[in-house]
Amino acid sequence: MVTVEMGCAGMGRTGRAVATALALAAAIGSCGCSLLIPSRADVVREEVAPALGSGDLVQEGVLTVAFDTASAPEGITDADGTVTGYYADVAAALAHRLGLKVSFVDATSSSQVLESGQADIYLGASTSDEDESIAVFGDCLEDSSALFAKTDEGQTLSVDDLASMTVGVQGSSAAQDSLNKAGVVGQQSTYMNVNECFEALSSGEVDCVACDATSGGYLARAYEGVSFAGTLDAVNVLGIAASEGSSTLIDEVNGALEDMADDGTLDAIHATWFGTLPVSLSDHMLTGITVESTGPDDATGDGGDTGIMLLDGVDINELGA
To answer: 241: which strand partners?
Structure first.
């Protein structure tokens, strides 16, 4: 369990005011004027009163958040044990909104940690996780099998386009299953992991890559001209799970998540990790694919991409930020 004190995650009113002042200083400076702004030591951080008490939390003053810390890019554990990733940033921002510190717990399922009382919430839950003891709420991430290609940003390919293209895909992955289910007749070249697929796209060995949307968005930042080109399957909406009886916790966390969506914080975190991948994938299906109504367990989510998810010698977290 890693506990991290977050004093300014999500940037409150004070942080935004400082950012505005810096931008104004730059503008005035270009006009030959000068403007003195407060130094970092002079800035007083906005204090947020805790929204939850000891009876609502596993540990008083701390929001204990569980997610898979070894499933990049949503969760990444560095060699020194530091936990980063999309869910880590979302968790930190939620905790800040609630006036709490944040603690991360590694878990691959919500029931694993919620029923045992090891965590307050679990990030990355689907509706199939919901039962008599676990409630699932909110929309913190959407994923699906998707295509990435060297196309104009925002351009969506069609099934007909793929008929004359070579698609790079990880063998025995959910993306390959989606290609086959969609009846894509183009040639497939299989690789050991999604990193190899993107290297093949970069070298011209393949025309596009089929992979999990989040994996592709994460890696595409490192490849000039490569962008999201549409989804291949049903969209999997991933939310937050909490114990069914923790109504106050659920209300406060859900409210904080809605505020983050409304003020752009969630979009900013999404862009940091997934680049130009749309936050909502529901309107980006490849033309010519029809997806039948499915249950939550049929949506893309398990059996996804594997691989190092990072390029040798490249700190991908600095790309597109």
So the answer is: 122, 136
Q: Output the CA angle 160-161-163, nearest 5 degrees.
A: 65
If one counts every other C-beta atom within 10 angstroms of the C-beta of residue 192, the result is 11
Q: What is the distance between the alpha carbons of residues 22 and 168, in angstroms, rounded to a whole number?
A: 45
pLDDT tens per residue, range 25-40? 444 445 555 556 666 5
Amino acid identity, residue 28? I
Phi and psi at 77, nearest 5°, equal -110, 115
Judged against a pLDDT cut of 70, whether residue 253 lies above it is answered with yes
Integer-rounded Cα Rg, in Å, for the chain is 21
Nearest CA to 253 out of 154, 139, 148 is that of: 139
Three-class secondary structure of residue 253 per DSSP? helix
**pLDDT 10s digits, 195-250:** 999 999 999 999 999 999 999 999 999 999 999 999 999 999 999 999 999 999 99
Q: Which residues touch 283 (CB under 8 Å, ≥6 apart)?
A: none
C-beta separation of 272 from 136 below 8 A: no
Instruction: Tell me which DSSP letter residue 156 carries.
Output: P
- Count of other CB atoms within 10 angstroms of residue 112: 15
Tokens 């800040």 — which residue? Answer: 96
Question: Which domains can be identified in the chain, with CATH numbers?
Answer: 2-142+237-274 (3.40.190.10), 145-235+283-311+314-318 (3.40.190.10)
Contact status, residue 194 vs residue 219, Cβ threshold 8 Å: yes
Tell me whether residue 291 is exposed, middle or buried, using C-beta atoms within 10 angstroms of its C-beta: 0 to 12, 13 to 18, 19 or more. middle
- How many helices (H) and strands (E) would you count in the chain? 9, 13
Q: What is the pLDDT of residues 144-193, one digit of tens each?
A: 999 999 987 667 788 888 989 999 999 999 999 999 988 887 899 999 99
Where is 189: in which H helix or E strand?
A: strand 187-191
